[in-house]
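anyone seen this seq b4? input:
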Amino acid sequence: MKHMRIGIDARFYGSVGKGLGRYTEKLIEHLEALDQDNDYVVFLRQENFDEYVPKNARFRKVLAQYPWYGFSEQFLFPLLLLHFRLDVVHFPHFNVPFWYPKKFIVTIHDLILLHHPTLRNTTRSRAFYLLKFAAYRFIIACAIRRATRIITVSRFTEQDILARYPAACGKIAVTYEATDLACPWLPSAREKAVFSRLGLLRGASADVSSKSIRDILKPYLLYVGNAYPHKNLEALLAVAAAFPTYAFLLVGKEDYFYARLRKVAEKQGLQNVIFTGFIDDRELNTLYRFARCYVFPSLYEGFGLPPLEAMTRGVPVLSSDQGSLPEILGTAARYFDPYAEGSFRRELAAILDSETVRQELSDNGYRQAARYSWEKMAAETLALYDRSIENK
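predicted toks r here
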């Protein structure tokens, strides 16, 4: 194996990049543990520069204060990359600088914007959105044509890319994402505080201190993620109206899309839908721990990490049957057709009405989630770096 200088565009690293940030964070974390031979330059923005602390002496972090999808990303970032004389650069997202002339690998997680090119995805004007959409199509096409290798996270996305971009033929490698298997729990008192804050405890605070959480907890269902239109959360609101004795928790940082969804719920008079806002990982583990079911009505996913994360926590999963979800979740989830009226409601009732069904889904979910490994993903990615140097 030739010694390499590898660059990783980690401007999405960590919490600022949501799912993409988690992928980038876990890739770097496990590369640090696996690779003692090559040198890495990790490019970060000011927002996440302190969040990443190298644990391997061969990893160096560099400030790259270039906004995503901006002018400086296209024209100034390539100059910084060239300064470090890198053998290969890994871009974990499609926004590859057009003017970067050397070898690179790109990860394309999905083609959501091509399948759902709607003005509902933006708060800007129609003209601005159409310009942005045209730029997206141009940049992703260029990245696919020029990349040495293309990484994607499911067979579904691989086929989706090949159907639209013949230039990707022979370049694609699938490296599945994963989820952390360790789930640290909060002390019981803090768990009760979380549920009290969300209004999910029966009785006054003074009456619950000595009781088991399960004895005083209102039954609830869980969704974790953003509220982008393709997530199809309006369908979740419709189902919530049909199950008024259950609380529906929607966990996600408040933004334009969540604010709009909240207004829809208020207009419909839904009292059992709770918008939690941002929840940190340890509190989120508590919400997973006691949920009756995890619901995921998405119309398109390149991988589908949240329901897999729910499986890791032993939560029964009800998912739409769209995109990569049947591939990733396998037989460990129950599915509904989001385009068939009543399908979501019927399948949810089948889960909630049967403890046997919930236990079976929980047991199968543990086994399904264990099939995926961040370490395996990083090892396969490292092998692609090596091959990209071999292929002159």
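The first strand starts at residue 5 and ends at 9. The chain is about 45% helix and 15% strand. kinda curious what u guys think
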